[in-house]
Design brief:
By secondary structure, this protein is mainly alpha-helical. Helix content is 57%, strand content 5%. It has helices spanning 2-42, 49-52, 64-75, 80-83, 115-124, 126-133, 162-181, 185-201, 208-230, 236-247, 251-275, 277-293, 303-345, 348-361, 371-378, 390-396, 398-425; strands at residues 90-93, 96-98, 106-107, 112-113, 454-457, 463-467, 500-501, 504-506. The strands form three sheets. The protein has a three-stranded mixed β-sheet, with no helix packed on it. Helix 10 packs antiparallel against helix 17 (398-425) and helix 13 packs parallel to helix 16 (390-396). It is elongated, with a radius of gyration of 27 Å.
Length: 515
């Protein structure tokens, strides 16, 4: 009997020791993270959602109600615009684009329509388009987003109305292309300015997904702007308005604000997950559904697997989440340092190179190369040791999209200023420096290396305007793909292009030998 008591006592002491050690380890991990958080606060880093809320939009500037009424009308539309985007600036070869507004038919990504059919579709939506144009005078959107609860608690992506905003951009693009086809330059400029006003008004949403949608809408805006510059009739004042609209867009600051807010929101979510195993399991169910929607096989968990997940969730809540949180916080610091460096250095090659090295030191690597892979990476099955820090991989990929957006912005500003110069002088300048200070305050920069955009006046009186592209090498304005055996891209800012060249217009779809 005594032997049994000794064994039980020994087992009890061992279990108590293990529990005590586990508890002490839990509190040690928690204390280390809290000390690091306190250090960040001391350094001036805003770590709570209350500190990073966007400033209130003055009622006189808030067009949220106007937009939502217009969006409701667009959602009820069943015209061809609803089912198929209308194309502008169709790239037909590297550095060569088709002026879609001057074609015999209205080109779409999945269909072709007559201009009369497009005109009927635009007319069916004139009320909503007229409402959207009011936003130019009141460029603010406050959808009363409840940031303080974090994502998933009365704060969902649907509250951001990103789908409706992107759809509105598509309708404005279609209306602008139609106006250009009929020579109605003023209408086209108004639609373009409305699209740019929407992009500007989204800047205070402070979500990375919002910034990505803004960048996607900017691509459409650039194509319309290019078509306007190919048209006969835009006045210097109209081009000056457009240039001003482009100049006030600031995607680098928008990305920085979104990352700061994302870090604070992730801490709110983390606190909830540590208190509720059900919320963690719901996250994994969401990931599973995401993988299935992306085309992965339907997943079925056995009773053993379900019990294993329950155990892993407990281990994650008590211990694994703390090193994961630390790695995530340090990853955010790297991303924020990158954005801050871009705001001062202007060279994406320097900033992104530094970012990659720092993330590698944290063992956060394998950033996807394209937006589809980037999206899919968000839904890959989680390792319980990096539930939080894996998001840093996706967030780091945002800087590639940011580079494209900033290059688009700088080159469009330059192209507008060049056309304004020509309207005044009768010819394009021999160098970009001649634009300063009458048309730009400083020479537009190439975001890749921070140097002035490359520019050359051609013998025929036209110009060559280009960025050195992602490889950072000046290839003399050669827009060809580095991998010449691969299919040509329909994106003038393709990552494989040697240089990113402002497209030259072609009057009709051309065969390669014509180019």
């Amino acid at each position: 009997m005594r032997q049994r008591h000794k064994i039980l006592l020994t087992l009890g002491v061992m279990l108590a020791s293990v529990a005590l050690a586990a508890g002490l380890y839990h509190w040690h991990l928690k204390a280390v993270n809290e000390a690091y958080m306190a250090q960040l606060v001391t350094q001036g880093e805003p770590m709570s959602l209350a500190q990073v809320l966007p400033p209130p939009v003055p009622p006189s500037e808030n067009s949220a109600d106007i937009f939502l009424r217009a969006a409701e009308m667009l959602n009820a539309d069943a015209s061809l615009i609803h089912s198929n985007d209308v194309m502008a600036m169709l790239l037909v070869a590297p550095g060569k684009a088709l002026v879609c507004s001057s074609q015999p038919l209205a080109l779409g990504y999945e269909s072709t329509n007559t201009w009369g059919e497009l005109a009927c579709a635009v007319e069916n939506n004139h009320s909503s388009l007229d409402s959207l144009r009011l936003i130019v005078r009141h460029p603010g959107l406050d959808f009363k987003i409840n940031y303080l609860h974090g994502m998933g608690d009365s704060m969902e992506f649907t509250n951001l109305h990103l789908g409706e905003l992107k759809k509105a951009g598509g309708y404005l693009t279609a209306a602008a292309v139609l106006a250009l086809h009929h020579g109605h330059i003023t209408n086209a400029v108004e639609h373009q300015r409305t699209l740019l006003a929407l992009i500007f008004a989204m800047k205070n949403q402070r979500f990375v997904i919002s910034e990505l949608v803004r960048m996607a809408m900017l691509s459409s805006a650039q194509k319309i702007n290019w078509e306007i510059l190919q048209a006969a009739g835009p006045t210097e004042s109209q081009l000056a308005w457009l240039q001003s609209d482009w100049e006030r867009l600031d995607f680098i600051q928008g990305c920085l604000d979104a990352l700061i807010a994302d870090r604070a929101a992730s801490e709110v979510i983390l606190k909830k997950w540590r208190q509720s195993a059900a919320l963690v399991r719901a996250h994994f169910e969401l990931e599973k559904q995401g993988r299935e929607k992306m085309g992965d096989p339907t997943e079925f968990a056995s009773p053993l697997e379900k019990n294993t997940v329950i155990l892993k969730v407990f281990l994650w809540q008590q211990w694994w989440s703390y090193p994961d949180e630390m790695r995530s916080l340090k990853g955010y610091n790297v991303l924020l340092d990158t954005a801050r460096l871009l705001a001062t250095n202007e060279s994406f090659r320097v900033a992104i190179g530094s970012q990659q090295a720092q993330l590698a030191s944290l063992e956060i690597t394998n950033i996807p190369d394209d937006i589809i892979a980037l999206t899919h990476s968000f839904f890959v099955q989680s390792d319980f040791h990096c539930i939080l820090s894996k998001s840093i991989v996706s967030l780091a990929g945002t800087f590639d999209r940011l580079l494209i957006a900033e290059t688009t912005r700088q080159m469009t500003i330059a192209a507008l200023a060049l056309q304004r110069f020509k309207l005044a002088q009768g010819h394009f300048p021999t160098q970009l420096a001649e634009l300063v200070p009458a048309y730009v305050t400083s020479i537009p920069r190439d975001p890749v290396d921070g140097q002035p955009l490359r520019y050359r006046l051609l013998a025929d009186g036209n110009f060559l305007l280009y960025s050195v592209g992602e490889n950072g090498v000046d290839d003399g304005g050669n827009p060809a793909r580095a991998d010449r055996d691969s299919d040509k891209s329909m994106n003038w800012l393709d990552r494989q292009n040697l240089d990113w060249v402002w497209p030259q217009p072609v009057a009709r779809p051309a065969l390669p030998k014509d180019l």
